[in-house]
Amino acid sequence: MGRQPCCDKVGLKKGPWTAEEDKKLINFILTNGQCCWRAVPKLAGLLRCGKSCRLRWTNYLRPDLKRGLLSPHEEQLVIDLHAKLGNRWSKIASHLPGRTDNEIKNHWNTHIKKKLRKLGIDPLTHNPLSTPTPQQPQNDQNQVPQQITKPPSIMPEENDHDHQNIEEEVIALESSNTISLKDMTTPELETIDFCTDDVPLIDPYEILVPNNSSTTSAAATTSSSSACCSSSSSSDHSSKNKFLDQDHHEWQFPDFEWPGTTFDYYNDDNNNMGLWDYDLSSSWDLIIINADHDGDSTKKLDIVDPDPLINYQCPRMVFDQDRW
DNA sequence: AACTTGCCCAACCGCGCGCCT
DNA sequence: GAGGCGCGCGGTTGGGCAAGT
């Protein structure tokens, strides 16, 4: 249809985002839940295209993002899902809470591909590497690979039983709807071995909200009753929304409650977060429990000066980079 | 110390899809 | 049905950094 590239406009900035731009974008999202990406740069005072803003938010600024390398189990999950779905990174990402399609795609290209090749497995087809025959041409890049009986494993200790667990995990992921924060700490889920060495498990009462510790449990209660981001693994429960500051103090970021009934990471058809249908400021104030000075944990904090909000609500951004 | 190479990942680009008029 | 528009997705790029020479 011959569309003009959205960033063709003269004067639009490209390249790495600055702290100032991040701040503007976050401020805008905090105070304007209802908007469209195209309007964001204009309204937020950014010299970026809407696409760039969306990308920045979804891939980097979103508060529910997990950082760091994928755990071996996450990698295995990616491999299993790739065997089923092919290069549908967004679909794969929807099965890994806190991970973005970009992140998974990058990880696949830089790590997993090599690992599989080392193991003699074709990362495209998930079949053993062999020279292509005329009858058996190499799969097209976009072609969904044939489902093979047993997707390759990169887990050195994995046996059939382990693999079955992964399969069950995927099925569970796909069928699960919501798991409350309370559910996340059930012993059953704790037994799932899912990079627990990376992040220790926490109980709801341990959820940290910066500042006022007396209201922390109230925050946890609030979030556990309303938190709805489903998760299939113990590490997800424990590491998601948890951040370390420069002094290695842990900061916990409670889950969002997304619009509609409940937000479901694992529903393939519902994996966009419906961000713009939702007033973020109304959910973020769950975090700002420390605004409560008279025991009312549900009291809301007026959003007057967004800077302190950012400092509280986006600890990852605050501490993830020196510039914050 | 200077240079080269390779790796990683944030960001960009172009296309396809769905919705609307 | 055609065309315009916005958004999301997947592929690619390029800059920064670390390791190697």
Automatic annotation (TrEMBL):
* Ranges where the record places region Disordered: 123-160
From the UniProt record, which GO molecular function terms apply? transcription cis-regulatory region binding
Q: What is this protein called?
A: Uncharacterized protein
Q: Which GO terms describe its cellular component?
A: nucleus
Q: Indicate the segments forming the HTH myb-type domain, all copies.
A: 9-61, 62-116
Q: Cross-referenced PROSITE patterns, in alphabetical order?
A: HTH_MYB, MYB_LIKE
Q: Which SMART domains match?
A: SANT
Provide the alphabetized UniProt keywords: DNA-binding, Nucleus, Repeat, Transcription, Transcription regulation
Give compartment(s): Nucleus
> What highest taxon heads this organism's lineage?
Eukaryota
Q: Which CDD domains match?
A: SANT
| Organism encoding this protein | Dipteronia dyeriana
Query: Which InterPro entries does this UniProt record tie to the protein?
Result: Homeodomain-like_sf, Myb_dom, Myb_TF_plants, SANT/Myb
User: What Gene Ontology terms for biological process does this UniProt record contain?
Assistant: carboxylic acid biosynthetic process; regulation of DNA-templated transcription
Compositional bias per record (Low complexity), positions renumbered to this chain: 132-147
